[in-house]
Structures are given as C-alpha cells and as structure tokens.
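Researcher: Quick test of sequence recovery. Tokens follow.
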C-alpha cells in the first residue's frame, strides 16, 4: 500500500532524535498518523549496522556507501566564542528523568543517574580487550583515577571501562531506529517510514504555519537532472530532525534563515533568522598510533582483511553474538581529564583566559576525553605490518566555531561548509596537553612497543621527545626471515630499545620547539568526531537564536527543530546520548502541544532474527 499524502505529524530525518520523536508520538496514539522521512537507507536487521565491531565499514568513502553523507570544508573562517545561559526546562535536573527514561543500563553502578527499562541498552559490549585494563593501570599511574562511571554527570577527571550503546544480551548495537521506530512499526500501523528520500523544503501557508513538506529522491537520477518533488501534508506539526548539518539547509531552502542570503538565492523569506547555520560546533579529535607487542589482542588482522581472522570472528558472531569479539567496537576504555594548576601554567594565556571564564568554577566540566582503540584506527594499506593501539584525544568544549549554508535552493547542490576547526587559538593548548598525557599513558602500558612515527608529531630528530618506532626484537618476530629488518637509512625510522614499561617513571620533557611541532601536527590532523551541534541554537531570537525553549522555530507556527542543531553550547558527553535526550524532550513538548500522553515503557525492542548458528548473508551494499 502506498503512503498517505496527508498525515498528522511529519518528522524529517531518522537519526537518533528524529527516531525518538516519531516512535514516541506514534506509540502514544495509534490513531495519530506519523510519517518519518529519512535520507538514508532502512537499517532494519542490517548486519552491517548492528554488529558493533564492523562499524568502520560504514565510514568508507567508496561512492556507494548509503550509510553516510560526507561534508567537506569549503572555506576557512574565524569566530568568537559566545556562551549562552540555559533555558527554562532544560537544566540537568529537568532532563535527568528523560535520560533515565531512554536507558536500559546494563553496567553495575553506584549512583542514581541511570535508567533500566528504556529502549537503549548500554553496556561494555560482550568482550573487553585486555589492553583496556592495561590502559586503566597506566592512566592511574599518571594521576587519572579509576571510576566505575565517568558518565555520572559529575566526574570530570577519571578513567573507566568505556560504556557503549550495545546490548550485552544480544551483542547488537543499540540503534535508535530499531529501538524507537521498528519497534512501533512491528505492532502498529500508524507510523510510515519513507527512506531514501531527502526533504527539500517545508511548505507554509499565508500565516507562516507549516502545513507539509516536499521531498526528493536522495540521489537525483531524473531526466535532465530535474528536481522532482513529492508533497506530503501535515495536519498538526512538521518536525525537523535532519541533524546539525541537514536541518539548517532545509530551513534555508524553506525561507527561514538570513534574509540577505535568501534574497540572493531568490528564496522568499518566511522568517529572517540570521542564526540559522551559524555557530557550528564539534568535538575535535586527533589520534596517535602506537606499536604493541605481537601477543597483544587487537582487531588489526580483522580490519586489514586477513581472511582466516575474518572468518573466525564472523563465525563467532553467528554462534554467540553476545560474547563475540565483534560485539564490541574495540574502544574499551577511556578517560575525562582536567589540567592541574601546574599544567595550566604551561597551557598559555589564550587557554588560561578560557579556563578562568569557562572551566574553573565548573568542576563537572572535563576539558578533554581520551580513549583507546585496540588496533590501528587508520587505513591498513598505508601501515607497516604488526599490531597497534590508537589513542584518541577529544576536545570537549572548543572555542572555535564554523558555519553551514546552502548555495542554492536546489536540494542536490552541496552546501558551503566551514567547520571552523581551530580558528580560535585557545583550542591548541588542551589538545597539545592531552597528546602528551595519552603518550605518557601509552608508554606505561605493558603492551607498548614504540610510536608509529608517521602518526605522531614530527619532532626534531635530536629532541629527547622525538618518537621511536618499533624495537628490533619485536620487528624480528613479525618478519623472522626478513632480510631488511633492523636496517635504517636516514632518520625516518628510529627503532626504540627493547621495551620495559616497568622502567618508565619520568615524563617526557618538551621544549618550545617540541610544542610547536605538536601544534603543527594538530593543525594538519585535527578531525571531526562527528559530534556536530549548534547550527539552529535554542536561545533568544535577538541573540541569534533559531528556536525557543519549546523548540518552535521563531516566526513560524507548527514547526519545531528537534536534533543536536538546537544546542546553544557544547556538551561534555557522547552526543548520541544527547541526541536521544533532545528527542525525548522534543517528544514530550510535542505531546503536550497535541494533548497526548506518552506511553511508558516504550514498545518492545525487536532483536529478530535470533542467531541460528548459520552465517547470515554478508551483503556488501
Ligand atoms: C561515524 C560516526 C561515529 C560516531 N560515533 C559516536 C559515538 O561513538 N558516540 C556518540 O555518542 N556519538 C557518536 N557519533 C555522533 C552521533 O551519531 C550524533 O551526535 C547523533 O547521531 C546526532 O543525532 P541527530 O539526531 O541530531 O542527527 P543525525 O544523526 O545527523 O540524524 C539526522 C538524520 O537526518 C537525515 N537527513 C539529513 N538531511 C535530510 C533531509 N534533507 N531529508 C531527510 N533526511 C535527512 C540523515 O540521513 C540522518 O539520518 C558518531 C557519528 C558518526 C557519523
């Protein structure tokens, strides 16, 4: 049966926030017709989505990846910082019940910040790699204490076995669509899911009331590349949940944005909101890769495509997914950190100014996150053989800002995007500091066998801080019959001594030149964590706000934004949680507007098909 041309509520975008809104509303009232329009493919029971250990496959830029859209910086720019106060109804105390409502927390805990019967399972995954314990011991040795929960809304300096959105009973990723959308579609018929469809614009009546949307196929294969739109009407509400990068583009194509830009593009102005698409934020990441001993358990052979290893790991999944190695993403431990007084002195005036203004009196705000991956998080065709671990350094509250704007009313035209990364100098010091911290942790791990020099700052070869690659003993174990093992011409390969972690007590000393080398490396390699937020901020209109505290878009009716674009400031969290939370809050607000009561707990989460012991189809799409 075809989908209706008119429904009650249209949700545009089926990421975590949109899935929560669509699923919660549809489940609340089986007579309410809800349509969820999603640009990507349906993920229902897709083994390339639900197995945590293969997630990198979904990030390959191979041209046929229907699970990702890639945004490339088109220009550079510079922005100033503008922190905002919290709006009424959005304090941690207001949101805590909603955080609990979404969780099915499966870790032991000593605090009361978690929920136990929500749709999203959280656990350590089925297997914890031994490098995680090695990491925790080494972190403790440099003053980062162990905690059993650094996500308790208070801890800002501590290390833990990393919690993940994985159901420990099934080994599966706890994705929002399965939890909130497929669960409802299994038992009710009022939720319509339209995938591979890109919302081009919102339709308004003469009073600026949203009355529907137009969408186009995600890929334009129409004759003459014409834009062929389909219209769906919404009787009650249009919700934009297309994410930090998608939502502002839809608004601008609909006439909601900076009037100057819209006039240039011949788009009739519905609401002049210069804040649309501005203040883009992210968590910035750099990653450094280390050599580890050949006995260390890592995912390298699996990731580089070793056939026997892949066969073994896939087979393990098919028989007991709940404890298979693929039931984890190999990111098994991590920390949040704040600098000491001594460390602050070395972090320069720009960061100290930011510290005094923003962090000093907020002991629950971490400056950096760090985490360990049991394997090289890199293209393995570009790496030497052997085993690796990767240290991630994440900047939680960057001062830099970016922006995204459409270049055309045509939904297929790529936008202008400036991530703004590092355009505020204050962001260098914390990343530099945490590079040093993670390096000190790595050096103290039992498995450590040197730095993969290509993935570290290029210090002067004479500097005591210069990186040292794999020692010859470990290298010989990799190629016992190799005729070139141990030769080194020039300085690019500087083998370390055979390693003994128990002898590491002193921290590496860095000179000004060393710090400059780290900053160059940061500038060259800093990356997204895909924790994008902030382009349709919830704050007063006169301050550049786009939505009010009920998530209504200023100057319009029946139109809300519900996704991470609404965040006026950054978040020291994993943003998937925050997106789900914004979805829960949005669902509450819309239910109130429509006079509905949400039904709790949510519809049962489907986990079919249960493993049969036979390999599932490994479709490469
Ligand atoms: C590779 C990767 C790894 C990540 N790892 C982690 C992690 O380990 N932990 C963590 O907490 N977070 C992680 N994140 C971040 C997390 O996924 C995001 O913060 C979260 O998904 C944001 O949710 P959202 O609902 O605001 O928007 P999105 O997830 O961006 O959802 C928006 C949805 O709208 C769709 N869409 C966009 N434009 C249109 C349109 N015009 N019409 C219709 N549909 C549209 C998109 O296809 C998408 O499904 C990761 C993200 C990525 C990409």
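Model:
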């Amino acid at each position: 049966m075809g989908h209706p041309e008119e429904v009650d509520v249209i949700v545009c975008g089926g990421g975590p926030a949109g899935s929560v809104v669509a699923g919660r509303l549809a489940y609340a009232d089986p007579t309410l017709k809800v349509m969820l329009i999603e640009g990507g493919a349906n993920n229902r029971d897709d083994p390339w989505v639900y197995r945590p250990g293969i997630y990198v496959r979904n990030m390959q830029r191979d041209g046929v990846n229907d699970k990702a859209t890639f945004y490339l910086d088109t220009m550079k720019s510079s922005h100033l910082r503008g922190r905002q106060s919290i709006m009424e109804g959005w304090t941690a105390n207001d949101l805590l019940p909603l955080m609990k409502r979404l969780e099915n927390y499966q870790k032991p805990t000593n605090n009361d910040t978690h929920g136990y019967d929500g749709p999203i399972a959280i656990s350590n995954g089925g297997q914890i790699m031994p490098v995680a314990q090695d990491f925790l011991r080494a972190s403790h040795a440099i003053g980062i204490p162990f905690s059993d929960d650094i996500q308790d809304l208070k801890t800002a300096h501590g290390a833990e076995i990393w919690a993940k959105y994985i159901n420990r009973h099934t080994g599966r990723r706890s994705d929002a669509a399965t939890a909130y959308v497929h669960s409802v579609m299994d038992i009710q018929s009022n939720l319509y899911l339209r995938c591979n469809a890109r919302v081009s614009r919102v339709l308004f009546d003469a009073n600026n009331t949203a009355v529907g949307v137009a969408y186009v196929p995600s890929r334009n294969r129409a004759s003459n590349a014409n834009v062929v739109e389909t219209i769906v009407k919404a009787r009650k509400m249009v919700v934009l949940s297309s994410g930090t990068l998608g939502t502002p583009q839809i608004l601008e194509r609909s006439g909601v944005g900076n009037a100057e830009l819209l006039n240039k593009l011949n788009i009739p102005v519905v609401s002049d909101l210069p804040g649309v698409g501005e203040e883009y934020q992210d968590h910035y990441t750099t990653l450094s890769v280390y050599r580890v001993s050949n006995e260390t358990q890592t995912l390298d052979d699996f990731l580089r495509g070793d056939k026997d290893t892949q066969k073994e790991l896939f087979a393990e999944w098919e028989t007991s997914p709940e404890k298979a190695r693929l039931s984890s993403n190999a990111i098994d431990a991590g920390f949040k950190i704040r600098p000491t007084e001594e460390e602050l002195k070395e972090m320069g005036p720009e960061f100290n100014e930011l510290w005094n203004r923003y962090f000093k009196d907020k002991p629950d705000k971490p400056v950096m996150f760090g985490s360990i991956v049991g394997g090289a998080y890199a293209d393995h065709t570009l790496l030497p053989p052997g085993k690796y671990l990767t240290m991630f350094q994440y900047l939680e509250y960057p001062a830099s800002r970016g922006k995204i704007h459409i270049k055309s009313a045509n939904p297929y035209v790529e936008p202008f995007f400036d991530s703004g990364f590092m355009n505020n100098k204050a962001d260098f010091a914390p990343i530099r500091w945490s590079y040093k911290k993670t390096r000190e942790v790595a050096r103290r791990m039992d498995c450590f066998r040197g730095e993969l020099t290509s993935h570290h700052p290029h210090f002067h070869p004479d500097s005591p801080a210069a990186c040292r690659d794999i020692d010859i003993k470990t290298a010989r174990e990799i190629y016992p019959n190799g005729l070139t093992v141990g030769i080194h011409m020039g300085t690019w390969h500087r083998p370390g001594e055979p390693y003994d972690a128990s002898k590491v007590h002193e921290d590496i000393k860095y000179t000004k030149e060393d710090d400059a080398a780290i900053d160059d490396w940061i500038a060259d390699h800093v990356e997204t964590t895909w924790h994008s937020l902030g382009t349709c901020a919830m704050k007063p209109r006169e301050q550049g706000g786009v939505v009010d505290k009920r998530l209504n878009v200023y100057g319009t009716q029946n139109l809300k934004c519900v996704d991470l674009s609404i965040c006026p400031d950054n978040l020291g969290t994993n943003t998937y949680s925050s997106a789900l939370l914004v979805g829960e809050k949005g669902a509450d607000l819309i239910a109130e507007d429509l006079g509905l009561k949400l039904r709790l707990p949510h519809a049962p989460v489907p986990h079919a098909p249960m493993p049969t012991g036979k390999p599932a189809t490994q479709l490469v799409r």
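The pocket of flavin-adenine dinucleotide is lined by residues 12-18, 37-40, 59, 198-199, 241-243, 246, 250, 530-531, 563-564, 574-577, 579 (CB under 6 Å).
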